[in-house]
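Field: COMPLEX_INPUT
Field: COMPONENT_COUNT = two
Field: RESIDUE_TOTAL = 770
Field: MODE = joint
Values follow.
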Amino acid sequence: MNSGIVTNLWLIPAIPLAASLAILSLANSRRKSAAALAVIGQVAALTLSIVAFLPTLETPGFRASQNFTWFTFGEQPLRIGWVLDPLAAAMLLMIALVGLCIFVFSVGYMADDKNFTRFFAYLSFFSGAMLGVVIANSLLLLFVFWELVGLASYLLIGFWIERPSAAAAAKKAFITTRIGDMGFFLGILWLYGHSGTLLFYDHGSGCLESAGLAMLGTSATFIALLIFCGAVGKSGQFPLHVWLPDAMEGPTPVSALIHAATMVAAGVFLVARVYPLFSLGAINGVTPSLTVVVWIGVTTALMAALIAIAQADIKRILAYSTVSQLGLMMVSLGVGGVAAGIMHLLAHGFFKALLFLGAGSVIHGCHHEQDIRKMGSLRRLMPATFLTYAVGMMALSGVPLFFSGGWTKEEILHATAHWPKSQVPYYLILAGVILTALYMTRQIIYVFFGKPRAASEHAHESPRVMTMPLIALAFCAIFFTVVLTPAWPWLHAYLTGDPALHFDSGRLIQPVFFVSLVLVTAGIGLGVLMYRRAGLQNQHRPAKTDPLEYAQPTLFHFLENKMWLDELYDRTVVAFAVVSSRVSDWMDRYFWDGLVRAFGGLGQLLGIFTTDLDERGISAGVDETTIGTRRIGRVVSGWHSGQIQTYLGAVAIGMLALLLLYAWLA
Amino acid sequence: MSPTLQLFLIVSAALFCIGLLAALSRRHAIFILIGIEMMLAGANLNFIAFWRFSSEPHQPTGVMIAIFSIAIAAAEAAVGLALVISVYRHYRTTNVDQLDQLKG
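Field: COMPLEX_OUTPUT
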C-alpha cells in the first residue's frame, strides 16, 4: 500500500493552482495579499516536496504510483495517476525551491507594476502546472499539464501586452511550441493505439514497463521520435529554438523561472521520463531515436553558443546560453547518460535562475537598460549582484571543483566520450564548453568591469528582497556540488537507483577533470584576452564596436543576426503560410463564393419565375372569382327588399307554380 | 240535393285564397295574421271534407288531425301577436311596409 504522501501527491500542484485562482479573485489593489498568497502556496508546495522526497531516500530505485480511472468510453477505461520516483522527487524539489526564490525576487522586481496581482496569479498557475508535469504518471495527464505550462508561458511572455513586441513574442512562442506538440500528440495517439494504456507505471502493465514495451515492437522508434518533437518545441532545440530568445520580452523573473530553470527543461524531463521508449531494442546503448536526440542536441548546443557570442542584450545572451545548455542535456540523454543529463538539468536550474535574476537585478539597477554595451563597472555599484552573478557565471562556464555546473558538465563529457557510435559529438561539445566560458566572460567584462557607460552611471544596488534570493540561489549553486562529485556521486546513484556509494576521495580527480579544466581556462583566458579592452576606445576601433566585430565583421553579423534563421523561416515557413492563406482567401472569394453565388442566382431565377406564375396565374384566378362573386352578391342582395309581403307573395307564386307543374305532370 | 265533396273543396279553396289575398295585401300586421288564420281554416276544412267523404268516416282520424292543427294555429297566433306587440314597442308602428330592416 502506498504511503500517505503518494496518495496525496496531487496536493503539490493543486496548492499553487488554488493559490492562483484565489489571487485572480482579488482586487487589483490588494498587492500584499496577492504576493503573500503566492509565496505561501509555494512554501506549501516546497514543504510537501520535501515530505515527498524523504521516502525516496529510504530504498534505492523507489517507485510508487497511484492510479485511478478518469472516465470510461465504451469498454476502455482511461486511467490517469501520479508517480513518485527519484526523478520526480528531485525535479519537485528543484522546481519548488527555485520557484520560491523567484517568487520572492518578483515581489521586489515587479513592485511598480500596475498588474502586480495578475502577475502573481500567472506565476502560481505556472508553478502548479509545472509541478503537475513532473508527477504525472500518464502521458495524457503529462500532456495536459504540458499544455497548461505552455499557456502560462504564453500569458507571461505577453505580460506587458501593451508592447507589440511582447505580444508578437508570446504568439511566436505559443505557435512554435504548438508545432512540436502536434508531433507529441500524434505520438501519444500512436502509443495508445499499440499499447492500450498511457500510464507509465501500472504494476507491470504500464507503457514503460516490459509488458507494455513488448507490444510496441519497431513502432517504438517512431513513437519516441514523435514525442521528442514535443520536447524539441518545449526545450528550444534546433530547429524550433527560435521562440526562446524572443521570449525574453517577458518580465525577467518569468525568464528565470520559465525560460531558464523549469519549463524549458520539461522537454529534457520528458525524454528522461519516457526513456524506456527511446532505448527499446538498444544495441550497445544505441538506437535510431537516441541518435537523432544526440545530433539535434549537438547542433543546438553549438549553434546557440556561437550565436550567444555576438548578442548585445544581457537576457538574450542568457537565453541562447539556455538553449545551448539544453542541447547539452539532450546529448547526454541521447548517449545514455540519463542521470548526468538530469543532474545538469537540476544544477542548471539553480545557476541559470541565479544568472537571470542577477540580470534582472542589473536591469532593475540600470533603469531597464538591457544592452550590455551601455553598462560597465557595475561591480562597484552593485557588489551583491556582482558576486552572485560571478558564482552563476562560473557554474555555467563549468569551472571545476567548487561549482555545480563543472561536475555535471564533466559527467556529460564523460558519457559522450564513451558513445560507441561516433566521437564527433564529443569534440563538438568540447568546443561548446570553450564557447560557453568565452561568452560568459565577455558578458561579465562588459557589464561589471571597465569604465561606467551611459546606463550604469546612475545604477544602484537592488533592494534586499531581490538580493536575498540571489544569495540563496548562489549558495544552492555551490553547495549542490556536494552531491555531484565523483568522490561521492550520491545524486547519480539516487537517480539511477544504484545502492549508495561510499565516499572515496581517490575518484575525485578523473582524466576528464583535466580536460574540463583546460577547456574552461582556455575559454575564460580567450575571453579576457579578447574583451579586456571592450567598450574602450583605441586608435583603430570606435567604442561601440565589439572586438569580434572589428576583427571578423562578416562572421559577427552572421552570428548577431542569429545565423539568419528567423529570416530563413520568414522566407520559407511563414511565407508558405502567407501564400497558402492568400490562395485560400482567393479560393474563398472567387471559387467557393462564386459557387455559392451561382446557387443563389439559380434560386433567384426560380423565385422570379414562381412569382410570375403566382401573380399572373393563381392570384389572378382567385381575384376574378372574388370579383364575380361580389357582383352576383350585389345583384342578389338587391332582391332583398325587406318587405315581408313580397317574400310571402314569392312563396305563393312558387307554390302555385309547383301545383301547376304537378297538374301538368299528372 | 246533398252536399258533395266538390262543394266543400270549392269553399275551402275560396277560404284559402281569401286568406292569402289578405296576408299579401293588407298593410297592418294584425290583418296579415288574420289572413294566415283564414288560410289555416281553409286547410282544416279540406281535411274534414276528405275525411267525411272517405271510405272510413266512422274512424275519428280527420277530426283528430283538425283539432291538432287548430291547437298549433292557436299557438302560432299567440307567437305572432307577441311578435307584433314587440315590433310595435320597438318601432312605434305595425305597418309592414315600414318594417324593412331585413333589406339586403
